[in-house]
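User: Here's a chain of 107 residues. Predict its fold as tokens.
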Amino acid sequence: MSDTSTYSLRLPKSLKNEVAKMAKRDGTSLNQFIAMAVAEKVSVLETEDFFKERAKQANLKSFEDILFHPGGEMPREAVHLISASNVITSQRCFERKGNGTAVIYIT
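Assistant: Prediction complete.
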């Protein structure tokens, strides 16, 4: 970090000890571990705000028009998910609710 500031942080001893163990296991300094934890939290909150703003722009009518487009293809019965080590088969079931919503179950 090229532009830093100092901040005195008070933690309960038990929490500080656990964080120190995690930092050591992670191969980082306590300071770097805490800085990364704070950065991750900030990222999560910013991402949440981003999606809340995007959701305000959503047009549910357009979504339903696309989802229930006549002549569209229903989801296939078996979906194959490929990971680096194996192939996982899961079943996907599509259900259209009477209130105009759709649910896709993956088991």
